[in-house]
Amino acid sequence: MSFALLCLIVAISDGDTLTARCGDPGRYEQVKVRLAEIDAPERAQPFGTVSRQHLADLCFQTQATIRPQTTDRYGRTVARVSCKDRDASEEQARAGLAWAYTRYLTDPGIARLQATAQGARKGLWADADPVPPWDWRKSKKAAQQHIPRRTIDQPTGAVLP
Fold first, then answer.
1. For residues 69 and 37, is the Cβ–Cβ distance under 8 A?
2. What does the alpha-carbon distance between residue 55 and residue 62 come to, in Å, rounded to a whole number?
3. The whole model's pTM is what?
4. From CA 1, how far away is CA 125, in angstroms rounded?
5. DSSP state for residue 123 in the 8-state scheme
6. Among 21, 27, 29, 34, the one annotated catalytic
């Protein structure tokens, strides 16, 4: 995909996902966008709220240029997004509020920005042992699968261990 969209950013879900309103008045389309090249902490994860706020400060209620790259498995447009003439993925990595998403990384500049932030202990790199979001999601999923489930005996309504 080599086209660009000019859109208004209307919502920030977390440090790497936003919602844009694109198109002409009366014919707007809402587009859920996942920032390319990075993975930011989940909202419930340490630095998740700070990462989301940093992205909001840069992009919320601003005109943005969105350069779609692909669509992810959740139907979100994966794109490079520029707000206030600044690349949002780069800004999140520079601030130490997102990891270079090495699984999908195509821009080595993002990894360099992460390394610089890491060396300066900026953002999440101030934490002694930051957990990458992909590991955090995996551990949360594993924990949920091991939650003992109590069942209810249908005839008596008693809760069984």
1. no
2. 11
3. 0.86
4. 33
5. G
6. 34
Residues 89 and 38 sit within 8 Å (Cβ to Cβ): yes
Give whole-number Cα distances, 122 to 18, 26, 112, in Å. 23, 43, 14
Pair 121, 95: CB distance under 8 Å: no
Confidence at 154, pLDDT banded by 50, 70, 90: low
Active-site annotation holds for 42: yes
d(CA 90, CA 100): 9
Question: Phi/psi of residue 68, each to 5°?
Answer: -60, 145
pLDDT digits (tens, 9 = 90+) for 25-60: 889 999 999 999 999 999 999 999 999 999 999 999
pLDDT tens across 99-143, in order? 999 999 999 999 999 999 999 999 999 999 999 999 998 888 777
Active-site option among 21, 29, 37, 42 = 42
Catalytic site includes residue 29? no
**Cα–Cα distance between 124 and 140 in angstroms, integer?**
19
- Of the candidates 37, 52, 76, 91, the residue annotated as catalytic is 76
